[in-house]
Amino acid sequence: MAVNKTEFFRLYKVLRPFVRAGNKETTIFVLISFIIENGYESNAEPDELFDVAVRVATKAMNRQQLEIWLEQNCNLG
Length: 77
Hints:
Strand order of the largest sheet: 1-2
Number of strands: 2
Strand content: 5-15%
Structural class: mainly alpha
Helix content: over 70%
Distance between the termini: 9 Å
Radius of gyration: 11 Å
CATH class: Mainly Alpha
Order of helices and strands: HHEHHE
Largest sheet: 2 strands, antiparallel
CATH architecture: Orthogonal Bundle
């Protein structure tokens, strides 16, 4: 099952202030927490999760790209 749109928008709403501030560490924590707390399993390696969080925090990955990445790399456990 793909990432639920409502959960995704909630994630992005939570991430937005940290992304704006360029706070990579908090962005990483929130992204990983979202995956775990919502019962998703990620097939991404830890380094890839870190890279995605950094790309989100530095605005190198936009909301649409993050949504696509989550759909491709996370499934309900």
